[in-house]
Fold:
Amino acid sequence: MAVNLMINGKATEVDADPQTPLLWVLRDHLGMTGTKFGCGIAQCGACTVHIDGVATRSCQFPLEAAEGVKITTIEGLSPDSSHPLQKLWVEFNVPQCGYCQSGMLMAAAALLEEIPNPTDEDIDQYVSNICRCGTYTRVRAAIHKAADMMKA
Amino acid sequence: MNEIKTTRRNFIISSLALGGALVIGTRAQAATVDVSPWDLPNTTGSAEFTPWLTINADGSVIVRATAVDIGNGTLTQIAAYIKEELDPVWDQIKPQYASTNRDYLEENVYSGPKVGGALAYFSGRSTGPARMDTYLQVAASARERLRAAAAAAWSVPASEITITEGMLKHASGKSGGFGEFVTAAAAIQLAEEPKPKDRSQWVFLGKKHPGKVQLPEIVNGSLIYGVDVIQPNMVYAALRQSPVMGGTLKSFDADAVKSMPGVLAVVAVKPGDNVPTDLKPPFPFGVSTAQHAVAVIAEHYWQARTALDALPVEWDDGPGAQWKTTQQMNDAAIAALDKPGEKVEVSTGDFEGVFKAAKKTVEGTYLTPYCEQAPMEPLNGTAMVTPERVDFWHPSQHSQMAYMVAADETGVKPENVFFHQTFVGGGFGRRVFSDDARMVVAVAKHFPGRPVHVIWSREEATRQGRYRPLMAGRLWAALGDDGYPTALQGRVSGGPGFFVSGINDTAITSMLPNVQIESQTVPFHILTGPYRGPGYNSNAFFVETFLDECAVAAGIDPMEYRLNIFGKWADIGWAKCLNEVKAKSGWGEALPKGQGRGVAIANWGMGGKADAGTTVATVAKVEVSKEGVLKILQIDLAFDTGRIVNEDAVRTELEGGTMFGLNMAVNEGLNIKDGQIVEGNFDEYPMLRMADMPAQINVHFGGLSDNPRFNEIGEPPAGVIGPAVGNAIFAATGKRIRQMPFRTQDMSWS
Structure:
C-alpha cells in the first residue's frame, strides 16, 4: 500500500504493508537509520521520533497511522546539529556507545518544548529511555544546561 | 503506541530560532571521523608511512585502529597519541579501522606480539603499553621524517624545524603543511628511529581531555552501527535458535510462509555445517559453533520477522530441558558448595589448623544469577557470501575473531574474506566470542550472492545469550582476638565457563597466611561468556559482602575494618582509595532511620599482585522504606589505575561502569523454565532509568597512586557498587542481602 508521509518537512511516498512499524519504514524502506531499533515493544525509547511534535516510540507506531502527520526524526532535529541539545551532548561528552542517543535527544527535545525549565522529576518522567552505558547523569546535566541557555 | 507528551507545538521552528542565538564553548573534537571507518584504501596523493599511519595530500592524518570503539573511546585515544607526537590539527586526525585481511596477508602487522597479540583487535583498553607505545612511536617516526624532508627542501638543519598544529616552520620564515612533504618524507630512511617523548614532556596526553571523536556523528544520527549497514541488493533475515540451548531443529514448514509478502527463503542452520579454516582463533577462549536455528530471508526486515513468527517449527529440546526451574539450578549450585571443590585454586598455610583453633568464625553463602549483557544495539550483521569471497559488515568487539569465524564458517580462503568493522552499539562482552558473527555468516551462506542482513529480535538476543554465569559462593573466616581474619576458606561453583577471578587473586587472598579457595563446575547447559568484569562481577560481591559480615561480627566499623586490613597491603592504592571515599562520602555522619551507607573495595586485573590492575572503592548511601523499596541517594567512588591520560574519558567509564554494576546488582537475573530462558525483553528484564539514578555519581581522583601503569577503567567499577549497596542496605535495615538481584530480596523493616 502506498502511503504519503511528511518526514522532516519533505513529502515522501512509501509502499509497504500498513502494519509495518514506522521504525522499519524509516530504517529499511527509506534508509534513514538515525532512528534506532532497541526493543520493538516501546520500552527502551531508542526509536523515539516526534509525531506532530510529540515524542513517540516509532516501533509501535504503524505506517497506516503515519499519513497526514508531521514526522521529525533525529536527521531533522536541526539541519546542522545546531539544536542546543546536540551541541551540549558534544560539549558534555554525553554519549558513550551512542546507540540510544538519537532517542534520548528526541525525548529531551520534546520535553524542553513542553516544559522549557524542567525539574529533575520532569526529566525522569519525560526521558524514560534506556541507556545501557549509563550516561544518565550527563543526559540530565545537559538538559538542565540547555534549558538555562534557551532561556537566555 | 507510547506517547510521552500530550500537547502539540511546532517544535522545529522554535528550536531553530533558538539555536542560532546560542554561543556554546566547544571542546576540542575531531569532526572528521568517517561514519563507517572500515578498512578504507589510501587515497591518491597520500603517502603511507607505516601500515598504521598515512598522511594525505591535504595534510590530514589517517591512523589505523585495531581496538574496536564500543563507546569506550579507543578511536579518540589513538588520535590523542598521534596528536602528542606528530601534532597535526586535532580535527585533521582521522581514525580508521585496520584491515584484518591485510593483517593476515602482511604477517600479523596489526596483531603480532609486539602490538597487542591475541587482544590486538579486542575492544579492551586503549592505554595498554603495546598500544600506547606503538602509536607514539609511529607518530614520532613520521614527525622526524617530515622534518627531514622539509630540512632537505629548505636547506636548513632538521633540528631547527618545529612542528605545531600541522605546520612545519623554520626561523627563516619558511613554513609548510604536512601535505607538501608527505611523498618525500615517507621515502626517508632515518639512521635511527626517534624515541617518543618522556611522559613529563607530554603536552596533550594527560593535559587535554577530548570528547569522543564520533560525537558529532552520534548526535545527528549519521554514525553507522552494524544494524545501520545498507548494501546494494541487500535482503534481511530474522533468526530463531533452539529455545533450549543445545536443542536441535526437528522440522519446519517453509510452505506455510513462502507466499507471504517479500519472503525469499527459509533456511536451516546447524553446527558442523562449516568448512574449517587453518586460521587460529585469536581470542583465548576457543571457537564458537553454530546453534541449531531457522531463519526467514525476505526483501524487508519486517516481512522476515512477520513470516518467522508465522513459521511452524518443532524443536527437540535435548538434555537442557531437565533444568525445570531457576530454583532447581540455584539449589544445585549451592549444593555443590557442601563438598570440597574438585579444583583447589589457592592453598596457603594451614587454614584447617587455624580454623580448628579459632574462637570465632564467620560463614556466608552467596548467589548471583545468569545475566545478559543487553547492549542496546541488538545482535546483527550483514554478510555477502559467494564461493570465492566473503564481505562481512558487523559490530564486533573483536574484529579478528569475527574475521576468523567468517573464514571458518564458509571455507573461503582468508585472503578473500573482507571484514568491515562498524561502530558498535554497546558490547559489555557480548560481541567478543563472535558466536553472533558465526550465525550471521551461517545464514548468509545459504543465500549466496546477495548481502544478507541478519537482525536478532530483542527477545531472541536476550534468550540466546552468552551470559554471566550463575555462580554460588561460600566463604569462611577465622577471626583472631582483635576481630580480624586469620584464615580464609572459599568455595565457588557455577555452570561451565564460570570464573574464579576476583576471589582467587584478590588482595585478602594474597595477604592472609592461611587460605584455601576451591571451585566446582555444575553441568548446566546454559551458554556463558564474558560480561563486564568476568568472574569479578560475582566474586567481588561474595568477598566484599562477606568482609562486611566479618566487620559486623567483630563489632568494628566496616570502613575502619577495611582500612586496617588493606592499609597493610603492599599496594598503597587500596588505602588511598578507601581514605578518599571516607573523606568525600560523608562516612560516619549520622543518618535518619531507614538510611545507610555501605562500602566495598576490589581490584580488577591484579592477578594476586600489588601495583597491578585497577582498584575501586565505592560508598553507596541508600534509603529503604519500611515496605522494602530501595532508593540510591548518593554514590562516591575513588579508583587507582596508577595513572590516567584522559580525565573525562576515565570519568565517563567510571560513571557508566558503576551504573552497569548497579543494574546488575539490583535488577538483573534471568530465570529458567523447562530449560529455556524466561525473560525476553526490557519489560521482563528491567533496566535502571533516569528516575532510578542519583543525580550524580561522584568520581574522586584522590585514590590515584601514580604507579607507572595506565590500567583499564571500564570493568573495575562494575564489581564494587553491588556489595557497596548491599552493605548499605544492611546498615539501613539490618537485613543482609546475599543474593542478586536485590529487587527479589525482602528488604522490609519495622
Chain B touches chain A through 86 residues (CB under 8 Å). The first helix of chain B runs from residue 11 to 20. The first strand of chain B starts at residue 47 and ends at 50. Residues 265 and 321 of chain B are 30 Å apart (CA to CA).
